[in-house]
Amino acid sequence: MEVYGNLSVIATCPFMGVERSDYVLSCLGPNEQGKREKDYAERKLKTLPKSIWDNNKNVTKIDLQKNRLKHVHGISQLANLAELNLSRNEIVDFPQEIRDLHQLKTLYINQNNIKCIPLDVFPSLQNLQFLKLSTNRLVELPSDINQCQSLTYLNVSNNCLKDLQALVGLAKLQDLYVEKNRLTDLPEELFENLTMFKATGNPLRKPPEEVCVGGLKDIRSYFTMLRDSSSTIKSVKTMFLGSSMAGKSTLCRSFDKCHPVKVDEADRTVGIEIKEVEKRGVRFLCWDFAGQEEYYITHHVFITPQAFVILAIDLSSYDLTDESFKEHVSFWISNIQLRVPDSVVLPVGTHIDLCPDKMDIDQKKKDIDSKLQCMLTEREETLQQLNKKLQGSDDPSLYSDQMDELRRLRDYNLKVLDLLLVDCTKPEDIQMFQDHILREATNKENLPSIERTLPGIYQEVEGEIQDLLQNDEIPQHGRVTLSDLLNIHISQGDMNPENLKCILRYLHRIGVIVWYEDIPSLKEDVFVKPSVLISLFKAIIRHDLVKQIQDIPKQELCRRRILNKHRETWVTDYVEKATLHNMAISILVQKELKKLDLDDEDIVDEIVGKGSRPGSLMCLLQHFEVCLPAKIASQLNPEAPEFRPSRRWVHPNPDVYDPDSACMFPSYLKNNDTVLKMWGEDKLSDLNVHRYFSPEIPYGFFHRLIVKTCSFYPVHWVGKDQCCFRSGNTLTLVKTKTVNEDQCIEIRCKDQGQDEIQKSWQMVREIMNRMDELTQEWPGLVQYVHTPCKEHGCSAYFPWRDWKDWVCAGSGKNSSVQEEKMTCNNGHTRRTELIYPTGLFSSDCT
Ligand SMILES: Nc1nc2c(ncn2[C@@H]2O[C@H](COP(=O)(O)OP(=O)(O)OP(=O)(O)O)[C@@H](O)[C@H]2O)c(=O)[nH]1
């Protein structure tokens, strides 16, 4: 697949988020003398143009972004410059001359290759308020940067910084972005005046990342509590992944007990099991994932950044073929690479006692290790080649976004260790397995953030919650309201409720408790025994669900006045429509609670729902896009409001729980028949956009996209890998497709005539927007967008270089495509508006 083109479709709005609103693109020509603002963006400049010095005393703003500048000699002559944009150039040495721009208030110098900033620059910039230095190669900040006393905004994300001590003393600093650096300890003094702080993607120890994502309030509260007492703990999130029956549970349980534990087939993992294991001062939070495909759709709920992954591979069923490697090894490595690219993976070969001889084992180990090596090298080479291709193009500055993206991917560092052979039946092998894990997990080169500094009170609160459970002051199911927890806890000490909340947030993030305070209907529910919640999850998401429904006892049905006939409908609806009735869910959950000895009518209502209130479990399933609410009675809603681009559409009543209704689990659908019927035929006049995913569309992505999109539009039809929905007059189809072995998601809108075309493009944008939200969870992905030529059989296409700006910024107009019609490389011509979104769009980003 050719991955780039040379069309600039939409005027680039170069900055997103905070800065965008401040940034006004000046459209003045470079030769217009006497102007105060000059725009030289995207002109392939290698040196500053002569016209820049015209009337130099008057110039206050210069835009030089997206050029090929390495130096800006002479820039200091523009003595009255207040805003300078040098972003997306090729600057390696920070231009010392900038120190003479005493009037400078705003400086963009992000996306260059700057490695070092000399001293004596920032003390001279006493008016500088806004400084964007992100995406460079900085290893340290100059120690005198804190003399830049007017600075209110600083962005140094995506560099290689190890500490921020130099920033202490910037009294006016409010917004600080330090994401994706190499920071471990943050100075407390930094947080006195900040109003915005982002630090994800650092190996943080003090405060740990789980505290930082809680925001400034949590960070300040952490430092306050740290003053009383502190301790350093080592903890590792350890995930056991691999195909079904590979030996994950055996490894996990044997690691815990430190001797071989036999796992019966009847005792197979359903969903996930969590275990906390303490070994030689290291706390392992072990997550044992079930291997059956049915459970993959819930993995995203639990898989978190940076983990130690044990990948179990059954060597007795491994057979040296590429298919076998894909099934047992590369499927999992690709998934981890896309989802949690910072992880460390230890492949473990199990069942070696069942292999015919040592030679067979050695051969398989060699095969896996070398194919793994090839896989990782191939990926690195592909990224390098793509980068080379972009750099070798006529104008590389046009592709700076793509190059940054590639650089970001290359910086990710998935580490795959050598395959370890473990005979799970032998005590000495289990001992060796344990020693190996301890060695690898505590190796700071593998997991730099294993150590963390915590205030003593954090561990005290965790211990106290366990005591409350043991003393029955918290019910055994572990669900307690936040206010009860605050009351119980506070009555025993003089703890500030905000500090306690901050600790609870931390415990939630490390997986010790579950508290989704961001889901409005769940913000009062704290689950201090996550295992119970997971058991309930497993009551519904399981491989043998049909059997579970069929096994519901007759008395249970009678008690709820349900006929056998209804039960049959539940089974057929589930098998044919992947739709599970809420009443069936309620019965299955109750059965699970009974098993746990927690059978209390009130709890069932709380968990599943009652009257018009959906329960916590349903909220969670829908929040995590595992299922979508489905009106069994009427699939088509004739009262669907018309889609209006300028107005955000709100579901009439999204929170209503209806026992007669049902939930749809799209991944269980077998075909696309309904979707095909509702969509009808593809037409040449359809709007048609392809969004390509490299290396592939991640497993579970399309399922989530269906839930995310269809639950937004009440009139929808869902199939295995296609869905279609109607909003007002616009009918839209979204499906997965493979073209020349490249995977893409196709979006099609039926042409509704001249007046409706803007609305159709809006629909395309809505879906692209949802894909953008989703792709955040797969940071290892690269994407490309284009419109295929509409002529039948033609393989040409029209690339979208600025698609991200269009989707995210929500505004833009066609800047360079002036023609009413466009012609593809094979000579076919079509109206431009059918190829690109050419009009003006409203700027609301829903
Ligand atoms: N002989 C032998 N049997 C093993 C070994 N490792 C695991 N088993 C057995 O293989 C079967 C499957 O092991 P599990 O640990 O349940 O596998 P799993 O990967 O957790 O399986 P799921 O829960 O289905 O995903 C069990 O009967 C284990 O006792 C091994 O090294 N040798």
From TrEMBL:
<dbReference type="InterPro" id="IPR001611">
    <property type="entry name" value="Leu-rich_rpt"/>
</dbReference>
<protein>
    <recommendedName>
        <fullName>Roc domain-containing protein</fullName>
    </recommendedName>
</protein>
<dbReference type="InterPro" id="IPR020859">
    <property type="entry name" value="ROC"/>
</dbReference>
<keyword id="KW-0433">Leucine-rich repeat</keyword>
<dbReference type="InterPro" id="IPR057263">
    <property type="entry name" value="COR-B"/>
</dbReference>
<keyword id="KW-0677">Repeat</keyword>
<dbReference type="InterPro" id="IPR055414">
    <property type="entry name" value="LRR_R13L4/SHOC2-like"/>
</dbReference>
<dbReference type="Pfam" id="PF08477">
    <property type="entry name" value="Roc"/>
</dbReference>
<dbReference type="InterPro" id="IPR032675">
    <property type="entry name" value="LRR_dom_sf"/>
</dbReference>
<dbReference type="GO" id="GO:0000166">
    <property type="term" value="F:nucleotide binding"/>
</dbReference>
<feature type="domain" description="Roc">
    <location>
        <begin position="229"/>
        <end position="444"/>
    </location>
</feature>
<dbReference type="InterPro" id="IPR036388">
    <property type="entry name" value="WH-like_DNA-bd_sf"/>
</dbReference>
<dbReference type="Pfam" id="PF25497">
    <property type="entry name" value="COR-B"/>
</dbReference>
<dbReference type="Pfam" id="PF23598">
    <property type="entry name" value="LRR_14"/>
</dbReference>
<dbReference type="GO" id="GO:0009966">
    <property type="term" value="P:regulation of signal transduction"/>
</dbReference>
<dbReference type="InterPro" id="IPR003591">
    <property type="entry name" value="Leu-rich_rpt_typical-subtyp"/>
</dbReference>
<dbReference type="InterPro" id="IPR027417">
    <property type="entry name" value="P-loop_NTPase"/>
</dbReference>
<keyword id="KW-0547">Nucleotide-binding</keyword>
<dbReference type="InterPro" id="IPR050216">
    <property type="entry name" value="LRR_domain-containing"/>
</dbReference>
